[in-house]
Amino acid sequence: MTSNITLVLGGASSGKSLWAENFVLRQASKAHYVATALAFDSEMREKITRHRSRRGAEWTTIEEHLALQSCISSLPQSSPILVDCATMWLSNLLFEKKDLIGECNDFCQYLMTYKGQLVIVSNEVGQSVIPETKMGRCFQIAQGRLNQDLAAIASTVVFITAGLPMVLKGSLDR
């Protein structure tokens, strides 16, 4: 399967969002940024503010925390789209008590026919400790499965550590 989908994985604060932003802007002078985070507390509000402040006029930002597929569908495929991030989207689905497996399967089915350039940022949770709570373990399992499914669809998968990319699949030559 050939796609124009790049999956950017990394741990928390690994530099994956900044790397993905720079990667997209090397491909095009204008792009769409789909932000999935919700500001539940002051720490998250500060993080969102930092992310917003580094995006310039080249970005059109759309904030969508649940309806990711319809959001992407509404955007023109002629310019790149950055989704930041799949992990926040998944946690939003969990908090809203949505069917995680069904939502993820529907999203991945949609991506299999997507023709535009899409970059998806996601947290790699498989290298962390086993969560203490049942909800945490369910989330970790769902995130691991989503990452595996996205990686299978993507033409390029990049793992970011300390802001540095390691290509796991495909090539960065575009």
Largest beta-sheet details: 7 strands, mixed
Strand segment count: 7
Q: Could you spell the SSE succession in H and E letters? A: EHEHEHEHHEHEE
User: Count of helices?
Assistant: 6
The parts where pLDDT drops under 50 for at least 5 residues are none
Q: Can you tag this structure with a few keywords?
A:
alpha/beta; single chain; 6 helices
Structure report:
The chain is an alpha/beta fold. Helix content is about 45%, strand content about 20%. It has a seven-stranded mixed sheet, sandwiched between helices. A hairpin with a 2-residue loop joins strand 6 (about 155-160) and strand 7 (about 165-170). Helix 4 (about 85-95) packs across helix 6 (about 135-155) and helix 5 (about 100-110) runs parallel beside helix 6.
Please outline the helices and strands:
Blueprint: E1 5-10, H1 16-27, E2 31-35, H2 42-54, E3 59-63, H3 68-74, E4 81-84, H4 86-95, H5 100-111, E5 118-123, H6 134-153, E6 156-161, E7 164-169
Parallel strand pairs: 1-5, 1-6, 2-3, 2-4, 4-5
Antiparallel strand pairs: 6-7
Helix pairs in contact: 4-6, 5-6
Give a brief outline of the structure.
The protein has 174 residues and is of the alpha/beta class. The chain has helices at 16-27, 42-54, 68-74, 86-95, 100-111, 134-153, and strands spanning 5-10, 31-35, 59-63, 81-84, 118-123, 156-161, 164-169.
